Amino acid sequence: MAFLALASAVPSALLALAVFRVPAWACLLCFTTYSERFRLCQMFVGMQSPKLEECEEAFTAAFQGLSDAEINYDERSHLHDAFTQMTHGLQELAAAQGSFEVAFPDAAEKMKTVITQLKEAQACIPPCGLQEFARRFLCKGCYSRVCDLPLDCPVQDVTVTRGDQAMFSCIVNFKLPKEEITYSWKFARGGLRTQDLSYFRDVPRAEGYLARIRPAQLTHRGTFSCEIKQDQRPLARLYFFLNVTGPPPRAETELQASFREVLRWAPRDAELIEPWRPSLGELLATPEALTPSNLFLLAALGALASVCATLLVWMFFEWYCSGS
């Protein structure tokens, strides 16, 4: 119900701008309706009092200091509740024959204190990405905005020797939502260093935020792209330019090269990036690899090892007892 009231307050704020012709909007116009404010003035000065217009202008003027307030987007419901409580308090003052000249400035000062106590909006973290955690609500206009940063992150250079392993980590330096996050990989072949999406083709087998190529070959030279999405909405695109250098591995004999040429060996798009299945050593050395599935696998291996050790001890004990 509070969100419905908040949504209905925005059109009322538009009406108030036309009526009062104030130069800047205030939080008052975002979180209260025109009918609520008009009803308060009627309670303070009377239904048909000539001081109604003066009361309305005083109400708006008292909150001009909040016209440029920016708050954490997640805190807007708390601020709406605070304005609702303020309205109820003003109604009680009006019923007690209080003065609006005193009540309105006092209420505005209290709301300033409330705003300073709200959780602050987090700063944007450059250089890229749609950062929902930093979304802000602006009282000057009654709207929200996110960081003015591009979706495309700068290209990162990755250099490996031919025959070695190339690994890409699709990790951003800002907080991602916890649910419905997906990763998709693309490749622009031919040695291109680019962020132009028209050059990229999907890499079907690649999924997850870690991917690797082994062994890296000269044909893998180019730009790899990882797109992070939440429920089909792009959050960021990372780019990795892979430069493969050096001669063929020493173990690559002329016979092996001829055999591969006969088979027309070449990495296909579907085999370009293999899903990363880390070894036990890689799991322990790379904290990012400890995904829930990998943690479950480690726990299962530990439990199996414990059961085997228990069985061996029990068998030894049985053998020892039977022999004595």
UniProtKB/TrEMBL annotation:
One cellular component term from this protein's GO annotations in UniProt = plasma membrane
Q: Which UniProt keywords apply?
A: Membrane, Transmembrane, Transmembrane helix
This protein's record includes keyword RNA-binding? no
The record lists the membrane-crossing segments as: 295-317
Instruction: State the Gene Ontology terms under molecular function.
Output: protein-macromolecule adaptor activity
Coiled-coil ranges per UniProt:
none
Tell me which residues make up the Ig-like domain: 150-236
Q: Could you provide one GO biological process annotation from this protein's UniProt record?
A: fusion of sperm to egg plasma membrane involved in single fertilization
Protein's name in the database: Sperm acrosome associated 6
Q: Which gene encodes it?
A: SPACA6
